[in-house]
Design a protein that fits this description.
Strand order of the largest sheet: 3-2-1-4-5-6-9-7-8
CATH class: Alpha Beta
Helix content: 25-40%
Distance between the termini: 32 Å
Radius of gyration: 18 Å
Oligomer: single chain
Bound molecules: ligand AGV, calcium ion
Number of helices: 13
CATH topology: Inosine-uridine Nucleoside N-ribohydrolase, Chain A
CATH architecture: Alpha-Beta Complex
Low-confidence stretches: none
Order of helices and strands: EHEHEHHHEHEHHEHHHHEEEH
Number of strands: 9
Shape: globular
């Protein structure tokens, strides 16, 4: 028997189109072993997110991976148009033809499942989060000792030295949406002391979903790249202003688990989180009363795009070769 050197990962997502694409990508990274998928009812309707998650696991031959759905909500709901958008993912022909029955859904809520899985683990678990902080923040505030089971948390959330992407009447635009959905949970997670690496808008701004990117993906002309291209095609009607452009937000966060160290810049500093208007969810530098934290500030965008296109092509069942460039 050979031992498994892959990194064990719990993936906590919130069912958006790029969350689902991130699931597909994560399952294809050769250095990663996904041990469970949890869903937050944030930038999605959870029924759709669950259907798409189970189908993607089935399609890729990963029906042994358990799924748990969350029931915790933040105070600032996502716009209903955004929540409805990912329903198209399980309306594509390949997804319609794929059954979901063989993937087990836990009786436990997402946070309870995470709590049980972390307490039973021997440690070294990485948590990849591409939705709000809520599920993990609940686990860590009930059981601070479980932080020791977590190797690191990579979270698509926040905006440190750039403006945010929230455009609401009672908000000054300084916050990123995942951080804003549940500002108190954002603060709890940053404060928890768990090794946290944010993937904030500072880094993801370099990666808008562009026509040349979609064109290069399409040229792969394979089952996986065609499905990924169909998902992304549904994002291009996003109004092309800064707040509405679709970026490779969650995709970049997933890539962080596999990127060579020289392809990204990680900063560290003291970060605080506002929980009140007009800047609820803002993640800002605060040397006096902030909490120590790291974040990705810059990436080699061309390398990331090439890596994404590499792993999101080929056959569903076959693991791709490691990416070399
Ligand atoms: O703020 C980025 C986060 C990511 O986790 N989400 C979408 C990604 O899944 C919220 C969001 C910001 N702008 C959006 C978003 C848009 N134009 N459409 C849908 N969701
Ligand atoms: Ca997301």
């Amino acid at each position: 028997m050979t031992s498994d050197h892959r990194t064990p990962v719990i993936f906590d997502h919130d069912g958006g189109i790029d969350d689902l694409l991130s699931l597909l990508l994560l399952l294809r990274l050769p250095n990663i072993q996904v041990i469970g998928v949890t869903i937050a009812p944030a930038d999605c309707y959870p029924d759709d997110a669950l259907i798409s998650t189970r189908k993607l696991l089935t399609l890729t031959g990963n029906n042994h991976i358990p799924v748990a759905v969350g029931n915790l909500s933040g105070p600032n709901p996502f716009p209903p148009e955004w929540r409805a958008q990912p329903k198209m993912c399980h309306a594509t022909p390949v997804m319609l033809r794929t059954s979901l029955d063989s993937v087990v859904v836990s009786d436990l809520s997402a946070d309870a499942w995470m709590e049980r899985t972390l307490s039973q683990s021997t440690g070294g678990v990485t948590v990849l989060k591409t939705g709000p902080a809520t599920n993990l923040a609940a686990v860590l505030s009930r059981n601070p000792e479980l932080a020791s089971k977590i190797e690191k948390v990579v979270w698509m959330g926040g905006a440190v030295d750039v403006k945010g992407n929230v455009a609401m009447h009672d908000h000054n635009g300084t916050a990123e949406w995942n951080a804003y959905w549940d500002p108190k949970a954002t603060r709890e997670l940053v404060k928890s002391g768990v090794p946290l690496c944010l993937v904030p808008l500072d880094a993801t701004n370099a990666l808008p979903v562009s026509w040349p990117f979609l064109q290069q993906l399409a040229e792969k002309n394979t089952p996986v790249s065609d499905l990924a291209g169909q998902f992304w095609a549904a994002t291009v009607t996003a109004i092309p202003s800064y707040e509405f452009t679709y970026f490779l937000w969650d995709i970049l966060s997933t890539c962080v688990l596999a990127l060579p160290a020289d392809k990204l810049t990680v900063e560290s500093g003291s970060i605080n989180v506002s929980t009140v208007t007009p800047n609820a969810g803002q993640t800002f530098r605060d040397e006096e009363s902030g909490f120590s934290c790291t974040w990705v500030s810059e990436v080699d965008a061309e390398y990331v795009k090439a890596m994404v296109i590499h792993y999101l092509s080929g056959e569903f069942i076959h693991a791709p070769m490691p990416f070399v460039k």
